[in-house]
Amino acid sequence: MRALIITYRRALVVATHLVLWTASLLLAVALRFEFDIPSAYGPVFARLLPLVLLVRALVHWHLGLFHGLWRYSGARDLRSLIWAATLSSVCYASAWAFTGFHTFPRSVFVLDWAFSIMIVGGLRFSIRTLREVSIQAAMPKSGPKRLRARRRRCRRELDARDRPHLSRRYEPVGLLDDNPSKHGERIHGVPVCSELI
């Protein structure tokens, strides 16, 4: 099962985003109409949804947001999410305006922008929080503290956590890791490599 997830991880990440964006738009429409959506807006929503998903997917792919490892999400990832949500919202709202469907409430676009950031960002940082909690729970309750991670993993996590300080003197170009499943992914915008580049 784990091997299957690793093989199709990118597709699962994209599919997860599509589901979250659909939920975000649906929640925005429902909230705008106080959860009593007029039946006339059903066909309009059906036309708008594919446009929203396409534009958001293209923007997020271009910005590399489908390549990050969520358990290492940080402030850099949050800024990228906000920028991607803003850019894609402006793009699809502009495209929607040119189609002539001006009857759709503009407040829906603003709500969808906010919800997309909160839902996607919330999931990413929830995964990071759960990972950190599980690590803390696995540590011994008493006795001397010991570092139970592999040296390469420690170096990778240290580099990711200390990037804001290191970037003042150095510009990291890659992180080495011996786990093939992580090669090609990004941690705080830095690619994970299998060898020196």
Indicate the radius of gyration in whole angstroms: 20 Å
Tell me, rounded to a whole number, the average pLDDT.
76
Query: In DSSP terms, counting alpha (H) and pi (I) runs of 4 or more, how many helices?
Result: 7
Low-confidence runs (pLDDT<50, min 5 residues)? 143-168
What is the strand and helix layout of this fold?
Elements: H1 2-7, H2 9-32, H3 41-62, H4 75-98, H5 107-138, H6 151-161, H7 163-166, E1 175-176, E2 186-187, E3 190-193
Parallel strand pairs: 1-3
Antiparallel strand pairs: 2-3
Helix pairs in contact: 2-3, 2-5, 3-4, 4-5
Could you characterize what this model shows?
This protein has 197 residues and is mainly alpha-helical. It folds into 2 domains: 2-138, no CATH class; 151-193, no CATH class. It is built from 7 helices and 3 strands; from the N terminus they run H-H-H-H-H-H-H-E-E-E. The chain has helices at residues 2-7, 9-32, 41-62, 75-98, 107-138, 151-161, 163-166; strands at residues 175-176, 186-187, 190-193. A 3-stranded mixed sheet has the order 1-3-2. A hairpin with a 2-residue loop joins strand 2 (186-187) and strand 3 (190-193). The longest helix is centred in the middle third of the chain and has 32 residues, at 107-138. The chain is elongated. The chain starts with a helix and ends with a strand. Residues 143-168 have low confidence and may be disordered.
